[in-house]
C-alpha cells in the first residue's frame, strides 16, 4: 500500500484542536499548522493515503504513543513520499 508521510512542526499546546477535521463522520480537533498543511496538500492530487502522526497516533493514549513513536523511522522510510512542513 503506497502512502505519503507528513513531517511537520507541532503547534503550542494552546493551539492544539483550534480547527476541526472531519474523518469518516467524526470530528477531530487539529492545530493551525496541521490545517495549513492539509489545505496545501489536498488539492495537489486529490484523494490519497497520508500518514500524519498527530492523526494516526492517538495523542490521548500514552500507551499507543509509547508503542508507535519508535516505529516512526520505519513509517517515514517506507512512505512513497515524505513531505516536510517546518511551519511558519
From TrEMBL:
Coiled coil: none
Domain of life: Eukaryota
Domain Heterokaryon incompatibility residue range list: 3-85
InterPro entries, alphabetized: HET, HetReg/Transcr_Mod
Record's protein name: Heterokaryon incompatibility
Naturally occurring in which organism (per UniProt): Schizothecium vesticola
Phylogenetic placement of the source organism: Eukaryota, Fungi, Dikarya, Ascomycota, Pezizomycotina
